[in-house]
Amino acid sequence: MPTTRRRGGNTQARLSFGSQSRVSKPSAAQSTTSQKAKNLEPIASTISRTPSLENVSGSEPAPDTPTEPSRPPVAELALRQQAQAELQQPLSEKDKLALKITPQQIEQYWKAEEKKRRGPRVHHEDLSLQEHILRHFDLSSQFGPCIGITRLKRWRRADSLNLNPPIEVLAVLLDEEKGVSQRAYVDELMS
């Protein structure tokens, strides 16, 4: 076995698990059991003063519950105003084409999209066809981020960037009778 070289000026501390080990950090003096008991007395008195679950009655209302009805968050209000402004703009050529799309064409589009999927969708049984299409559009990352922007504005932005968003999505968005949400589902979850 080859011999190892040792340098004379090695000042690095070595681990030793014996009784004569060197300590690189100063340690606190060991406390006695009486000091430990003194330290625990304030904690024990605090615990005895806190009410137990049996003493708390369920009939009392919590003092910090709000009495006002909750209002929608500021982001929700901003997106609603943004959606109203988008819908009031004059119709473009793409909008006119989208309004001519029939419900049968929308169904054919969705069936074609479903064929591209490998497995069944989970937790989508109670959604309408329009909501299926819009959630699919929300989660399609090639059209840009969907948080903080209305669906219609996102579709128009993707179209202006020549990303070729599906015209069927625009048809669903412009269909006012269905009352679809202009806010992406992921955006609703995040706020």
TrEMBL record:
Region span, Disordered: 1-74
Entry superkingdom: Eukaryota
GO cellular component, as recorded: delta DNA polymerase complex
Gene Ontology MF, one: DNA-directed DNA polymerase activity
Biased composition (Polar residues): 9-37, 45-58
InterPro entries assigned: DNA_pol_delta_4
BP-aspect Gene Ontology terms: DNA synthesis involved in DNA repair; DNA-templated DNA replication
Compositionally biased region (Pro residues): 63-72
Protein name as it appears in the record: DNA polymerase delta subunit 4
Lineage, top ranks: Eukaryota, Fungi, Dikarya, Ascomycota, Pezizomycotina
